Amino acid sequence: MQGGPVSRGLEDVVVANSAITFIDGKGGRLIYRGYDIRDLAQHSTFEETCYLLWYGRLPKPQELEQLRSKLVGRREIPLGLERLLEAIPAKTSPMEMLRTGVSALSSFEPDDLKRPESSIGGALRLTAVLPTIIAAYHRLRQGKRPVAPRADLDHAANFLYMLTGEVANPSYVKALDVALILHADHEFNASTFSARVTASTLSDLYSAVTSAVGTLKGPLHGGANEEVMRMVHDIHSPEEVESYVTQKLARHEKIMGFGHRVYKVEDPRAAILREYAKRLAQESGDPKSFVILRNVEEVVHHEKGLYPNVDLFSGACYESMGIPMDLFTPVFAISRVSGWTAHILEQYSDNRIIRPASTYTGPTDLAYVPLAQR
Ligand code: COA
Q1: pTM attached to this predicted model
Q2: Same domain, 317 and 330
Q3: Structural domain of residue 259, as residue ranges?
Q4: Are residues 153 and 208 in the same domain?
Q5: What's the confidence (pLDDT) of residue 318?
Q6: Mutate to test the pocket of ligand 1, among 260, 264, 293, 307 (most ligand atoms within 8 A of CB)
């Protein structure tokens, strides 16, 4: 069609009403269902945050207990999926594997989990099982057997346990739980939007989450946390930061972990993760990566006036916990699946197919030339 002016990247285009997450980009606040992320990071747990996102309110103790046991009961992966993960070449990136893993899981699931009206069951299942898929693949690609989930461990602790077979240090568990809370939702970010677009065709929840995983994978979205730590390792020492960053900026390259479409001030999630990264670096006795990141922050702010986003310090936290770099974005997915599914449920509850328009810029009156005459 011959439409009006284009907003590149849909900047500032409002596409829906949503009661899930509010971002105050000027005030630097992030709100889930009315609650400030800072309060949730301090007082809540990932499981409670899931309840909040899906049901719209904080649970009573018994409701939280029921949710926990439902999640625990849905952690196992089908044997057929494990065999499929085993067949995936070990060089495959874990996000590529996860896109296939979520899609393939759907074939092993009962049909009633896939109907829009039973999507809360699918939301529980996918949130419960994503850590198992990721940990199982990580073990298999190293030639090790997957570690079965442990019912007595909460979501964050169980994921770390399934990676190594050892119960993790409580300070790692706490930091990961907080990181999962902070990444759980972020309004109409790219992956959530793609999940909602898929759901708006009344496709099933597994398809919508598969779309979201593929979208999260990109370096401008979920892939940024991994890129940040690659940069830290490239830099080698805190003294090299200034020349590294200024040269990169002079080549008009982006510095991962900075800038945001919505936040015009510091991303509140970055401030919380900075504290955890610092704490874990001090505990480990090796603060080099943290010091490099702080220097990068200073130089980027001085040169470009940009603030860190959620991805600047998350990778440093995960690295301190011993999580391999290529699992950083899958860890983002472990958290964000709660938000994706909350949005999919919201989309189903008041659906109209999402179908925007474009302004056509090509020709319209060309005469067809037969193949032999071209
Ligand atoms: N490093 C250097 N410059 C940056 C930058 C960064 N990380 N982020 C934005 N900028 C600059 C752009 O070069 C552009 O400058 P220009 O106007 O002189 O060309 C300006 O700031 C606007 O950036 P733009 O890419 O148009 O903003 P956007 O709203 O389309 O994109 C992001 C937002 C998050 C994709 C973008 O800031 C980015 O690519 N950041 C790095 C990736 C990242 O950390 N992603 C995780 C997001 S949570």
Answers
A1: 0.95
A2: no
A3: 224-321
A4: yes
A5: 96
A6: 260
